[in-house]
Write a structure and sequence with these properties.
The longest helix is centred in the C-terminal third of the chain and has 20 residues, at 86-105. It contains 5 helices and 2 strands. The chain has 2 domains: 14-77, Winged helix-like DNA-binding domain superfamily/Winged helix DNA-binding domain (Arc Repressor Mutant, subunit A); 86-126. It is 55% helix and 6% strand. It has 130 residues and is mainly alpha-helical. A two-stranded antiparallel ribbon has the order 1-2.
């Protein structure tokens, strides 16, 4: 089951952070059709957020056709995101983890690393290299 985390400094609305984390988990194969999302009560208890925030995120995911609420049972993944190459994702995750460990060993903190990552993403996709 996915465990949501919030970054209050991100500037991204809380419900969107939840939606993005489900998208990421689907892309990485951490969530599959049939998997249950945490209940709104579980998320509220862990993150101390308004239940309506969780419900809004789940409604957005349901509108996208990714999850379905089953009254009295919970919210379940019904579809994954298309175009996932699991081998390529696993290889990239491994390489990225090694780079992150090297960056930490070099004394960079998470803000430094994130700034570098976001700059690299903008540079690569601005050049049309995808």
């Amino acid at each position: 089951m996915i465990e949501f985390q919030l970054d209050p400094a991100s500037g991204v609305a809380t419900y969107l952070q939840l939606v993005q984390q489900v998208h990421q988990a689907l892309r990485l194969g951490m969530l599959e059709p049939g998997d249950q999302l945490p209940t709104a009560q579980q998320v509220v208890a862990k993150l101390a957020i308004n239940p309506n925030t969780v419900l809004k995120a789940y409604r957005d995911l349901e509108r996208e056709g990714l999850v379905r609420a089953r009254p009295g049972m919970g919210t379940f993944v019904v579809q994954t995101l298309p175009g996932r190459d699991e081998v390529a994702l696993a290889r990239f995750l491994s390489q990225m983890s090694k780079l992150l460990l090297a960056a930490r060993a070099a004394g960079l903190d998470s803000d430094d690393i994130e700034a570098i990552y976001r700059t690299a993403i903008r540079n690569v996709f601005a050049e049309g290299v995808a």
